Amino acid sequence: MTAHEIDYRIYGEEMQYVEIELDPEEGVIAEAGSFMMMDDGIKMETIFGDGSQKDSGFLGKILGAGKRILTGESLFMTAFYNNLVGKRNVSFASPYPGKIIPIDLSEFGGKFICQKDAFLCAAKGVSVGIEFSKKLGRGLFGGEGFIMQKLEGDGMAFVHAGGTMAKKELKAGEILRVDTGCIVGFDQTVNYDIEFIGGIKNTVFGGEGLFFAKLQGPGTVYVQSLPFSRLAGRVLASAPQSGGSQKGEGSILGGIGNILDGDNRF
């Protein structure tokens, strides 16, 4: 194996974290901000890109870091190494309620494609790159632009799904239509495209956006019930407006109740 062979355990139900067990000289890479805790004796190092190619040289490191900029991520990742004798543990937490999905890349032909904000951590040696879309419609209307992340290698990687996770095993030719934001990831055998919903009533009054993601098997697809964009949108929609608190939340009057309470000043 080119990637480090790590052991792991996932804890929790709604707000999960994954504990990675590192043997001597083993390492794990993670996105900035996902670290939770670690045992004494683990060395933390900030690296350019994902650090998957040790002998790529300075130019290779710059290119690896540049790929991360295209996906909207930081130039840097964090690596954790066990430099002592004996096993040590390091843990990484979910960014919001949901499930952590372990992905054994050797079972997916060495490649897994995921949303750019789904990746949590992986064994040292796993490459975290970009997946360019070759179709114009997919790039313009897919919700993730022309680019998604791809995880390559033969080690373990961990991605996060918001809310409840659904795993779908698609047969050859079988089609699954999904809200574009609800896709967590899929393997390289799945064909991914964008499909217009159609119908004037659906377009204007449907409230579900104009496009579906069309996933065609064979292959495995992971779907999330609560993408972060949807969660953030609901929070912003419910946030109090400037100039007063929303005492009328849950009331039939709603915003009118706030005016009657004297919260809105003109």
UniProtKB/TrEMBL annotation:
Top-level taxon of the source organism? Bacteria
Q: Quote any Pfam family the record assigns.
A: AIM24
Protein name in the entry = DUF124 domain-containing protein
